[in-house]
Amino acid sequence: MAYFNNIPTVKYEGTDTKNLFAFRHYNPEEVVLGKTMKEHLHFALAFWHTITMDGSDPFGYATMQRDFDDSDDEMVRAHHRVDAFFEIMQKLGMEYFCFHDVDIAPQGNSLTEFYANLDEITDHIKEKMDETGIKLLWNTANMFSHPRYMNGVASSNSAEVFAYGAAQVKKGLDLNKKLNGANYVFWGGREGYESLLNTDLILENDNMGRFFHMAVDYAKSIDHLPQFLIEPKPKEPMKHQYDFDAATAMAFLQKYDLTDYFKLNLETNHAWLAGHTFDHELNVARSYNALGSIDANQGDYLLGWDTDEFPTLVVDITLAMYQILKNGGLNPGGINFDAKVRRTSFEMDDLILAHIAGMDTYARALKGAAAMIEDKFLEDIVEERYASYKNTEVGRSILDGTATLAGLAEHALKEGDKIELKSNHLEHIKSVLNDYLV
């Protein structure tokens, strides 16, 4: 069944186009730094925000007009949603998608019924994948919405909840193998605490480590080991979540000996909530060789919560793409649009228009970041700023490990106050950066 017959396949038409349903910057076959845009930008469609988000908020009812929600039968509606989902990807030329288990199938009245519903819907998804060539970037288990998970899953105070979550992840990995997924994501939305007054923080973190090792062991047992990803977020819904930011997540992975199996899936809005910029989080992750994939969205500078807006801030995304290019790309990860249209953008067409805006933003950012790399703009600035470590005897001794405190003290006493500092010229750097915003 088709739901977007009024919209043609979206093509690149350049910045002079007046066609709403055309890319102005994203040209999938344009070559940038030796690869096509399509090869650089593994765009993925998120099932939850695209298909299941209805526009309701704490202050108002649903607003979205969704022609595919045209049946009172939950399973019939689930099948129609799959058809609409793949139709959107084909209209946009997207080659990847992501989903939570509860997005695609109703949970039913038991775990057994949920498993059966997932099997039926993923049979349909696999047929669409085979028909279109579209691939699964990652899937995950929603272990934060149901009341049973009010105290978390792996960090729960209840062993029964821990076991139930394990059952969801087991099924998620089975589905990942069935659909040949490249990655599997853990977002610990409620893996944290409301108050330390009643929390055994050490036990909860140890149990999370045990949970992740169980997932790795099971993946090996079914001969399908995807790239595991942790998605950091500091708060919301919990007051404090254990995967606070990239650095905290890496400390956890190192402590529990999981770095061989896990990388990070980073999100713009989550970085902001942690008090960081997105490029900071990406830089931290790649410093650990752990930059795996990203969720593409943005927040609102005036709002202090996770608004999941479509990315349109070119300077932020250009700096993010710079980090991604310096990382050598994201393969096998990608750029998942974990973004939802605004409550006032309620028409079916807005689902296409919003993704065009996001894809164009990343295309602009790719070209700008590539130009910075070709010109060695930031590399030259950084190299000059730290030149004393390479160009002086004392600097080289620090880098090669031959320096000692006593030796450095002797050097400082000999040289006295002959230290010459240079201005960072930071305002000039930021001004020139604007020239790269394509």
Automatic annotation (TrEMBL):
Q: Where is the active site?
A: 100, 103
- Where in or outside the cell is it found? Cytoplasm
Cofactor(s) in the UniProt record: Mg(2+)
- In its keyword annotation, does this UniProt entry include rRNA-binding? no
Q: Where is the signal peptide?
A: none
Binding site residues for Mg(2+) 1: 231, 267, 295, 338
| Entry keyword Isomerase | yes
> What's the superkingdom here?
Bacteria
Which EC class is this protein assigned? Answer: isomerase
Which molecular function terms from Gene Ontology are attached? Answer: xylose isomerase activity
Q: Which InterPro entries does this entry report, sorted A to Z?
A: Xyl_isomerase-like_sf (IPR036237), Xylose_isom_bac (IPR013452), Xylose_isomerase (IPR001998)
Q: Which reaction does it catalyse?
A: alpha-D-xylose = alpha-D-xylulofuranose
Q: How is the cofactor bound?
A: Binds 2 magnesium ions per subunit.
Its EC number(s): 5.3.1.5
Name the residues that bind Mg(2+) 2.
267, 270, 306, 308
**Keywords of this entry:** Carbohydrate metabolism, Cytoplasm, Isomerase, Magnesium, Metal-binding, Xylose metabolism
Q: Which HAMAP family match?
A: Xylose_isom_A
Q: Which family does it belong to?
A: Belongs to the xylose isomerase family.
Q: Oligomeric state and partners?
A: Homotetramer.
Query: Under which name does UniProt file this protein?
Result: Xylose isomerase
UniProt source species: Lactococcus nasutitermitis
Phylogenetic classification of the source organism: Bacteria, Bacillati, Bacillota, Bacilli, Lactobacillales
